[in-house]
Write a structure and sequence with these properties.
With 278 residues, this protein is mostly helical. The protein contains 14 helices and no strands.
Length: 278
């Protein structure tokens, strides 16, 4: 199969991933976090370079679906868990970023963003745009990574100062999110014609018609999303019970206290400036 797909160097992708890995290694001393980051970056490398990256960008909707799901369901949560709390605190400390992360930590907002933006990345105009332009392909993958991070912010509760859900709420959120991540799958399965004219050579490279590739993408989206996310939901709930923690309580961490104190100081500064301006 891949012998018919011309080999391409993805130097920019490789250099960026290596740079992220080196940067992470220099600021993190935890072996667990380093292993998580290594796993995430290796998975990201596998789905963005030849042959998977090329198949996903211009040949196969099934490959594009697998690529996006691996980034959203595997790479994004691993990167969040691989980043130390103090680093996350520094990254989210600026006022605009703090406000955005606090909004995105709400399960309803996160699910809305994942549904709308995630669906757009697999819409016909965006897929066709990515198939024609290397820059567009990079932009789409960055957006997919963003969607993945948004998806897991409420579930993992690792960002300082955001509302942390109880284990039962986190498990319920992950289960519900699995249903909206694959919003286009039924359209692909039941469509009677191919919806992506820019994807081509499916028969020569994969021995399948464009319509079959599209229908297969629908089934793959369902299975590759439901299986891991339902497993995560079950694990979150069962671990809380095994550790003797209440599945209804919301945990509190010192990083959350520090962020709340920072927000109080900012509110006082705004009130003082408003008072002085009057």
């Amino acid at each position: 199969m891949t012998s018919l797909l011309p080999f391409r160097w993805h130097i920019a992708d490789v250099l960026l991933i290596v740079a992220v890995g080196v940067g992470h290694h220099t600021v993190v001393t935890s072996k667990r976090e380093r292993r998580l980051a290594a796993g995430a970056l290796l998975a990201l490398l596998a789905v963005t370079v030849w042959p998977m990256g090329d198949l996903a960008s211009s040949v196969s909707l099934t490959a594009a679906t697998v690529q996006r799901l691996i980034i959203m369901v595997l790479v994004a949560p691993l990167l969040l868990m691989a980043t130390p709390t103090d680093v996350l605190a520094r990254l989210t400390r600026p006022r605009p970023i703090d406000w955005v992360t606090r909004v995105l930590a709400h399960p309803g907002v996160a699910m809305f963003v994942v549904t709308v933006v995630g669906t757009l990345t697999l819409s016909t105009p965006v897929v066709d745009w990515g198939a024609r332009s290397t820059i567009a392909r990079g932009v789409v993958l960055v957006v997919v990574m963003f969607v993945g991070l948004v998806l897991w912010i409420p579930a993992l509760g690792v960002l300082p100062g955001v509302k942390r859900l109880s284990p039962v709420a986190r498990a319920g959120y992950v289960f519900a999110s699995s249903l909206v991540v694959t919003s286009l799958s039924f359209v692909w399965i039941f469509s009677r014609h191919s919806l992506y004219p820019a994807l081509h050579h499916q028969h020569a490279l994969l021995h399948m018609t464009p319509l079959f590739d599209q229908q297969l993408a629908g089934f793959v989206a369902k299975f590759c999303c439901y299986a891991p996310m339902w497993a995560v939901a079950f694990t979150i709930f069962s671990r809380a019970e095994e550790q003797g923690a209440s599945t209804e309580e919301t945990p509190l961490h010192w990083a959350d206290v520090e962020r709340q104190l920072l927000r109080v100081d900012r509110q006082r500064e705004r009130a003082l400036r408003r008072h002085q301006s009057q």
